[in-house]
Amino acid sequence: MTGDALKEAMVAYRTRWEAVAEIEAEELRAMPMERRLRQYAILIAMARAMGTFDDSVQYNEADVQPVRERWRVLKEKFR
User: Could you read off the pLDDT of 43-67 as tens digits, one per residue?
Assistant: First the structure.
């Protein structure tokens, strides 16, 4: 495959995956909240079963506050 053909194939590949990502995003936006929560609960149950989820973790407010601030800034920026 030549350089131009390879570049063209890569662009086509990326374009297809961008279309797939947009369809997936639209499906997520249309998904009812009940289904989202059910899927979240399933993920948490799986994490607990694998031993990778710990409910007992306590977060220090000093550690959490900078994260909340970053989310606040992002939320304002992308509204």
Answer: 999 999 998 888 777 888 888 999 9
Residue type, 53: F
Alpha-carbon span 14 to 77, nearest angstrom: 27
Give the predicted TM-score (pTM) of the model: 0.48
DSSP category for residue 31? S
Return the structure tokens found at 78.
């992308």
Are the CB atoms for 26 and 34 separated by under 8 Å?
A: no
d(CA 79, CA 75): 6
> Cβ atoms within 10 A of the Cβ of 41, count?
10
Report the alpha-carbon distance of residue 20 to residue 13 in Å, rounded.
11
Distance, in Å, from the CA atom of 61 to the CA atom of 68, rounded to the nearest integer, reads 10
